[in-house]
Amino acid sequence: QSVLTQSPSVSGTSGQRVTISCSGSPSNIGSNYVYWYHKLPGMAPRLLIYRSDLRPSGVPDRFVGSRSGTSASLAISGLRSEDEGDYYCAAWDDSLSGFVIFGGGTKLTV
Amino acid sequence: QLLLEESGPGLVQPSGTLSLSCTVSNGSITTTNHYWGWIRQSPGEGLQWLGYIYYSGSTSYNPSLRSRLTMSINTSANRFSLKLRSVTAADTGVYFCARHGGSRDGHLPGLNWGQGILVTVSS
Fold first, then answer.
1. Which of A78, B49, B53, B120 could cross-link B71 (Cys pair, CB 3.0–4.6 Å)?
2. A69-101 exposure pattern, b = at least 16 Cβ within 10 A, e = fewer
């Protein structure tokens, strides 16, 4: 089955900038939007980025999404302690009649 | 603010059927281009998409679960449901319902999620 590949972990200190990457294929990131979610233990995922580079109302502009070819990335600047948690990318995959695929998640430590 | 709330048994016997419902409030489940889906997270694992249903009854399922999964929708009750058959311990996890976007949004889960419900498969 198609996969979205994320690095298992990333770390940074307060105020720093980190980038989380998401690698896919032509059938998913290569031809469809990428979404990013922040997940804390015991909580529902929170949407951070939709349509690859748009932020919902209330998401700080410290979070910036981008997509190029079959890869996407989420940049977080001005790191804060509350940014800790797991980050997931997701995209629609056009194969096998179509389905939503999530990346394996990246654990951010601040 | 659209609210979603999962409900159902927290314990299911192995080889049995996992049945969950998601009730939508402060909004209509028949809104155009709103799709209604399920995502789960097994212990220590990442997020896994299960599928979605539209108010018309059309569905899209995760290919790896398609043979065991059925989703349904009750528009009069503003509720949609999931049935997962022949469950094993690997189906243990937290199940979230979420509103998905339409085709312009790639049919992905958006802003509105339920709080999640823990389902354990065990005898």
1. B53
2. ebbbbbebeebeeebebbbbbbbbbbeeeebbb
What radius of gyration do chain A's Cα atoms show? 13
Q: What is the rounded end-to-end Cα distance, in angstroms, of chain A?
A: 33
| Subunit contact A100:B113, Cβ cutoff 8 A | no
Partners of A90 in beta bridges: A35, A102
| CA–CA separation, B119 and B18 (whole Å) | 8
Model confidence over A29-71: pLDDT tens digits?
A: 999 999 999 999 999 999 999 999 999 999 999 999 999 999 9
Cβ contacts (< 8 Å) between A100 and chain B: which residues? Answer: 37, 49, 52, 62, 100, 107-109
- What whole-number distance in Å separates Cα of residue A43 and Cα of residue A64? 22
Structure confidence by residue, pLDDT tens digits, A65-110: 999 999 999 999 999 999 999 999 999 999 988 999 999 999 999 9
User: What residue type is B8 in one-letter code?
Assistant: G
Q: Does A104 touch chain B (CB under 8 A)?
A: yes
